[in-house]
């Protein structure tokens, strides 16, 4: 059994897993930029600072995408890993990545 004539092989990526360049090129921040890595034992967390300067790392599962009002703000904190900042860094490697897709015979990329 083979593929029908005209079948296209292609590839796709998810921006938050792949992009890199999280703070470059005029891109605004997304919630994933403030979301830490997690594990089986430790959930991913959203990091933020409240109006009084207190640091918070709220488990993502309990976070509703909105901070309390009054000066609270999302923040990247030194003691946490933010894997979405790097991804596989398509931002800096897109030409070679797209060439790799083409070399594999892919005709589409999303």
Walk me through this protein's architecture:
The longest helix has 14 residues, at 90-103. Helices cover 16% and strands 15% of the residues. The protein has helices at residues 15-18, 90-103; strands at 10-11, 45-49, 55-59, 73-74, 108-109. With 110 residues, it is an alpha+beta fold. A hairpin with a 5-residue loop joins strand 2 (45-49) and strand 3. It is elongated, with a radius of gyration of 19 Å. The chain has one domain (22-109). It has two helices and five strands. The mean pLDDT is 87.
Radius of gyration: 19 Å
Total strands: the figure is: 5
- The parts where pLDDT drops under 50 for at least 5 residues are none
Largest sheet: 3 strands, antiparallel
Structural class: alpha+beta
In spatial order, strands of the major sheet run 3-2-4
Number of helices: 2
The overall pLDDT, averaged over residues, is: 87
C-alpha end-to-end distance? 27 Å
The proportion of residues forming helix, as a percent range, comes to 10-25%
Indicate how many domains the architecture comprises. Answer: 1
Sequence of secondary-structure elements? EHEEEHE
Large-scale geometry: elongated
How big a fraction of the residues is strand?
5-15%
């Amino acid at each position: 059994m083979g593929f029908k004539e005209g079948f296209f092989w292609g590839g796709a990526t998810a921006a938050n897993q792949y992009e890199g360049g999280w703070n470059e090129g005029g891109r605004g921040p997304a919630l994933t930029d403030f979301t830490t890595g997690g594990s089986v034992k430790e959930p991913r967390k959203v990091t933020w600072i409240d109006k009084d300067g207190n640091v918070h790392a709220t488990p993502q599962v309990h976070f509703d995408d909105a901070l309390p009002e009054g000066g609270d703000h999302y923040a990247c904190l030194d003691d946490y890993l933010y894997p979405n900042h790097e991804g596989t860094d398509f931002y800096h490697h897109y030409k070679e990545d797209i060439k790799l897709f083409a070399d594999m015979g892919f005709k589409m990329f999303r």
